[in-house]
Design goal:
Shape: elongated
Number of strands: 6
Largest sheet: 3 strands, antiparallel
Distance between the termini: 74 Å
Radius of gyration: 42 Å
Structural class: mainly alpha
Helix content: 55-70%
């Protein structure tokens, strides 16, 4: 019968009786004595149910009718079940019901169940006893009036039936108070996991019940109960150890076995106290703000809203609760940490193990640093041609600029650039190694012994492995080392299609693409003249021609692209009504063409970019593609790389208007800023940077300070443009004044009206010059304040490459290299190009990098310097190698001028010899006085042997 309360398939309405019936008129006791049901009549029908745990309570019997909406009324029963079992997942299921309410509290109705919690009614121990008394009196009166003789055994059986009917199970609650929330019920039952779930869901922890109890007070009582149990268990454990001859009782043994559960409850109680303390602190802060707001409103004759006043009234309660839970957490923290099975103790043990590993690693790093520092000191004494190091830095910066131009102009790519740079670096290392023997001869004259393998080994470790950790490997001769570098540079890297990718998801993607292509290909072979299937196969082949394919290696993607074009032509020959597939194919074709251009080496044909622009244009003729922002983005990138800046600006500006909520709108705005900067239209460029700042960070690689620095650079370019225009206009005005004076002297009979027009024109021109002058001052103030703001931020975070003044920092190349690197990784190549260029030429504007001594100051130094004489030819060839660069000062210039420029770069970009020793000392001692990792000039090349661990 108890189960029928919840599951009565053929029942339309439950326990509905005619009005006027009394409780004692109907009584049903099942044979097994499992349940007792009574119905009270009157004006309002109520249900009273004795139950195992919880049972449904309905104010009206019609609510108990089985219908579609009845399940939504049972969430409170499910929530109480989850609280009793301390199961957060069951509580979550209950709170997912449409009618679930976090603010539900215990109510005490006039009739029926003792307490009600939503649709669930439950009874306390007292009401259970009352039910037993009612039943006993009812049976006794019936037997006495009927004069039936009942034996003692029969009376015992009757009483057992009454107990089963009145107490279907033990009472779940020893205490239930009106106004208790679900969180309070969970704490009373010591279900702390469910309590934490309810607290995080938003159940108010500062409310009181009708007796004035708070959640903090109940937590204190429950913690005292748990501590009593813990102390009792500790007493039993001590007693069992001291009196081994005495066996513990069965109850004491069970208490000892419950020790883990007790400590687990203590840990859960500690975590719950911490969560409540944090929430109370937030609430107290909010109440303080509400107090200030109320004072301001009182001046205006107003007051807070009703919900704000209610929140303000709970301030004292929240403060008291916070003090109590903080004290409880402090008392129980040490106890929880003492228990090895607690989460806090495990976390502390893991932290200790991790710290031990870190200490071991740091000790190893210190050992390697000391070893390499000794070698570095010797290398510094050997490598006296300091300008060679700085020419290498200039070469690296120049190569970075060439790479950026390659992405924007299409005449180089990453692979070819890497191979060329590796060859040049190998030749330079070889020349340095050749001069090593001459240095040894000069060193012997001074009586100094140098290791024969230190230089080559250091360069090898720095160039190939990059860490220098494997110093104990056998020495590799210089010739073998150079040959190995050339083999690595010349060897093409082709991914074999038979090699399966690593990782579960990569493997599933690989198998899915392979299966889709195979099935569609076999289907097309069976139906060779089905245009729709051939079109789908063409689209799939085009998809495999892009980087999205994990099944097709890069070396075969161009071939798949050609197959896709051929299949689409055949498909259109069989069926011309394939507009959707054609536009989908054109979109994929544009992506494939753009990626194919970036995949090719120096012979990359600009026709790839023009084909990509045409493909995207044909795709955008379909209305479905016009609402896809990625198609517009691909078209804009292709137009930018092909050099059509005006068309790219038009496309990007249209994207900003059409897709204001695009998730990559900040990146689109930054790309538009770079395009306008390339066109020297700096007003819209600054506007797009501000728009990107509102949307996010410009791209994932650029920080807020980077955006401010970019904005300052745009204002600086704007300022330079205004200065140039003002200079040109002033020259024109001088010419005009000379011409006008000569005209006045030669022609005195000119009409007065023409002279008036001339004076008006000059007046307007003077106004225009004054306006431009004011605007020029504003732009200068704008970029100066932006640079100083970024400098102050980096000074606070100790990220200005050492202790530097503002002038030293703004003219340091690493300041602009940091932003250029991030912009390059974000695909903003036009911005990166300008910042790379600034890193090369900005330090020329300042005299702070002047050298303190001459390069060659003795005969021995001159002899050492002559050993590296062939480096001049190498560097001049490297700097003048790329005739397509946009830097006029590096194009088609004679050898002597190039070498003079290289030495200038050494003077401006490089540091003096004292700084080299300072940097080496910083690496040895582990101090913070070293350069940033983001800087290209992060560490002097003289100290090649020190690894960047």
């Amino acid at each position: 019968m108890g189960d029928e309360i919840f599951h009565a398939p053929g029942e339309k309405q439950r326990w509905k009786l005619p009005r006027g019936k009394q409780m004692t008129d109907i009584m049903h006791v099942s044979k097994a004595g499992d349940s007792f049901f009574s119905q009270m009549g009157g004006d309002e029908e109520l249900a009273v149910t004795a139950f195992k745990g919880f049972a449904p309570y309905y104010a009206q019997p019609k609510h108990g009718v089985l219908n579609k909406g009845s399940s939504s009324m049972r969430w409170a029963e499910q929530l109480l079940q989850g609280i009793r079992d301390d199961d957060p997942e069951l509580c979550n299921v209950a709170m997912m019901h449409a009618g679930a309410d976090l603010g539900i509290k215990i109510e005490k109705p006039a009739e029926g169940a003792a307490y009600r919690f939503g649709s669930a009614g439950f009874f306390t121990t007292n009401q259970m006893s009352e039910n037993v008394g009612v039943l006993t009196k009812f049976i006794k009166d019936r037997i006495e009036t009927s004069k039936v003789f009942v034996s003692n055994n029969e009376w015992d059986q009757i009483h057992s039936y009454i107990e089963n009917a009145g107490r279907y199970s033990e009472a779940t609650f020893e205490k239930a108070v009106k106004g208790d929330s679900a969180l309070m019920i969970a704490v009373r039952l010591r279900s702390f996991k469910a309590a934490k779930y309810l607290l995080h869901q938003g159940v108010d922890s500062a409310i009181e019940n009708v007796e004035g109890e708070t959640i903090a007070g109940v937590l204190k009582d429950k913690q005292e109960e748990i501590m009593k149990e813990r102390n009792h268990i500790r007493f039993l454990r001590v007693q069992a150890k001291s009196l081994r001859q005495m066996a513990l009782s069965h109850e004491d043994q069970l208490a000892l076995l419950s020790e883990p559960q007790v400590y687990d409850q203590l840990e859960q109680n500690y975590e719950l106290c911490g969560d409540i303390s944090r929430l109370m602190e937030v609430r107290i802060t909010n109440c303080r703000l509400l107090k200030m707001k109320r004072k301001l409103l009182i001046v205006e004759g107003k007051d807070l809203k009703e919900d704000e006043l209610k929140e303000l009234s709970l301030q004292d309660n929240a403060a008291k609760s916070k003090a109590i839970v903080d004290l409880l957490a402090k008392e129980v923290k040490d106890i929880v940490l003492e228990w090895e099975g607690s989460k806090l103790a495990k976390d502390r043990a893991k932290a200790a193990e991790k710290q031990a590993e870190v200490n071991k690693k740091e000790e190893k790093v210190r050992y390697w640093r000391s070893t390499f520092f000794k070698s570095a000191v010797k290398i510094q004494a050997i490598w006296r041609g300091l300008w060679t190091r700085h020419l290498l830095e200039v070469l690296c910066l120049h190569r970075a600029c060439v790479f950026v131009q390659a992405k924007t102009r299409g005449f180089l790519c990453r692979a070819q650039l890497r191979r060329n740079a590796l060859r040049r670096l190998t030749v330079m290392i070889q020349s340095v190694a050749r001069g090593f023997n001459g240095r040894k001869k000069v060193a012997r004259k001074k009586g100094i012994v140098y290791p024969a393998t230190a230089l080559v080994m250091a360069v090898r470790q720095k160039s190939i492995k990059g860490t220098g950790a494997e110093i104990e490997e056998p020495y590799l001769p210089a010739a073998d080392f150079i040959r190995k570098m050339f083999e690595e540079a010349d060897k093409p890297k082709i991914i074999n299609a038979s090699v399966k990718p690593k990782g579960q998801w990569a493997m599933l993607r690989f198998m899915g693409q392979k299966k889709a292509l195979t099935e569609l290909k076999e289907d097309c072979l069976k139906h060779r003249k089905d245009g729709e299937k051939l079109g789908k196969l063409a689209v799939l082949c085009c998809e495999h021609g892009t980087a999205d394919s994990s099944f097709i290696p890069p070396s075969q993607r161009d071939e798949f692209l050609r197959w896709g074009i051929m299949l689409l032509e055949k498909a259109l020959g069989f069926n011309s009504n394939l507009d959707d597939l054609v536009h989908q194919f054109e979109r994929k074709r544009g992506e494939a063409m753009l990626e194919a251009w970036g995949r090719h080496d120096i012979d990359a044909d600009p026709a790839y970019l023009s084909a990509a622009v045409e493909a995207y244009g044909r795709a955008l003729k379909n209305i479905e593609c016009t609402v896809v922002p990625e198609v517009w983005m691909g078209k804009a990138i292709a137009q930018e790389y092909s050099g059509d800046i005006d068309a790219a600006i038009k496309t990007v500006a249209g994207m900003v208007r059409k897709f204001p909520n695009y998730q990559k709108g900040d990146e689109v705005s930054m790309r538009a800023a770079g395009l306008y900067m390339a066109k020297q239209d700096y007003g819209p460029a600054c506007g797009y940077v501000r728009h990107a700042n509102k949307l996010g960070r410009g791209s994932m690689m650029l920080s807020y300070m980077d955006l401010i620095l970019i904005s300052g650079r745009l204002n600086e370019l704007w300022y330079e443009k205004l200065v140039r225009e003002a200079a040109e206009e002033s020259e024109d005005s001088e010419d005009d004044s000379d011409d006008s004076s000569s005209d006045e002297e030669s022609d005195d009979s000119e009409d007065e009206r023409e002279r008036e027009k001339e004076r008006e024109r000059k007046h307007k021109k003077r106004q225009r010059i004054a306006k431009r002058t004011k605007e020029t001052e504003e732009k200068k103030e704008a970029y100066t304040s932006a640079y100083r703001l970024v400098y102050r931020h980096y000074v606070e975070h100790r990220n200005v490459f050492g202790k530097r003044s503002f002038e030293s920092w703004i003219h340091h190349p690493a300041t602009f290299i940091r932003v250029a690197t991030r912009a390059e990784k974000s695909g903003l190549f036009l911005l990166a190009e300008d910042f790379y260029k600034q890193s090369l030429i900005r330090c020329r504007w300042w005299d702070g990098f002047e050298r303190r001594g001459e390069l060659v100051d003795s005969d021995e130094d001159e002899e050492l310097h002559s050993d590296n004489g062939d480096v001049d030819d190498i560097v001049s060839k490297a700097l003048g190698e790329e005739p397509k660069t946009r830097y006029d000062q590096l194009v088609l210039i004679k050898k002597k001028k190039l070498l003079a420029m290289a030495r200038d770069e050494e003077k401006w970009i490089g540091q003096h010899f004292d700084y080299t020793k300072k940097a080496a000392h910083a690496w040895q001692t582990g101090t913070n006085d070293k350069l940033s990792k983001d800087s290209v000039v992060a560490f002097p090349k003289v100290v090649e042997a020190i690894p960047t661990l």
